[in-house]
Here is the input.
Amino acid sequence: MLLPRLDIDEFLNALTPGKYCLITHRNADLDALASALVLREVIVTLTSSNEVYVITPDGLDATSRSFLSNLNILPNYLYEDVEFNKCCNYYVVVDVASKDQLGRFNALENYILVDHHEVNTLISRASVKLYDPKRKSTSEIVAYLILTLGMILRDEYLTLLIGGILHDSRFLHLADETTFNTLAELIRLGGDYVKARNLLSKHTSMDYSERIARLKAMSRIGIYKADDYVVVITCIGAYESNALKSLLDNGADISIALTRRDEGFRVTVRVGEDVVSRLGKPLAGLLTSYLADELGGSGGGHSLASGSYIRCREPEKILKALELFFKSLLGSFKTVDNGRWLEECSRYG
Ligand SMILES: [Mn+2]
Here is the structure.
C-alpha cells in the first residue's frame, strides 16, 4: 500500500465545506500542476465547495503551460500568487519541499501537505499529510488517492496525471513497480499516454535564451574535488536546472548553481544518480537544507535534485559552507579551478 489508510482517512475527514486554496511550488512544473488540478477535482467533488483555487507562486513553467494549453481543461480558478486576492478557510500545499517555494504564502500554518520530496521541511507544520518520499512524483500519490476512492475523472485529468508522472520520473527513468502499476491504471481508466508523451517531448527544443544561459553557466564554472567526486559551481540568472543537467552530462558528479535573488541567492543542486547510490544519502536535499541552516533561508528536496533560498549576499560564505559540508561528508574539498563564478555572483546589482 502506497499511503497508510489512516492518512487517507484523516485527509478525507479534514475535507469540510469551505474555501480552499491549493498552493504549488514556485514556477509550477507539470507534476505540481497536475497534482493540484486533480486534487482540486477531488476536493470539489467531496466537499461540494465551489470555491477551490489553485495558486502557483511565480506562475507555471514553460512545459506545464504548453501542456495545459493543449488539453481541454480551462482552469478559470488558476491564479499566480500575486494576482490572487481572496481568502481561504483551508490551505493545501502540493508538491512543495520548503517554505521559500511558497512565494507569499511562506508563513502558512495548519495546512494539508501532499508531497513526495525526500527532504521536506514542511511536514512538521502540516496538520494532515499525504506524504510518500518513495514516490517519484506527487502525481502518483494523487492518482493513488483517486484510485482508492474509485473516483471518476474526465480523461483530460488522467492524461494530466500521466504527464506529471512522466515529468518527475524523468520519462520513467526513475520509475518503479508502483509507478508502472499506477500508469497502467490511469491508462485503463482513459488517460492518454501517447498524448501525454507527445505533449511533453514537444517541449524539448531549446530557445535562444536557454542556449545562452547554458553556455554562460559553462563559461563561469569553478571546479572542485570532494573525495573523488567532481563538484562544479556556477552563477547564472535562469535555466538553472537545464544548465546543471548539462554540466552533469559533461562530467560533473555534483553541480550547483547560484542565482542572485532579492537579498540572497537561490541555490539549485543536481547530483548524478551513481553518486547518490554510492553514498546512500539524499545528497542534493541534504546540501540545500545544510546551507539554509548554516546561512539562513530554507531549502529541501530530493536526493538528485534540490533547491533553496539562502539569505546571504556573499558567495564566498556559500563556498565556505559548501567546503565544510563536503569535508564533513566526504573528508576533503579541494579547488581544481575557481573559474569566474565567484566574481560573477559578487556583482550584486
Ligand atoms: Mn514533484
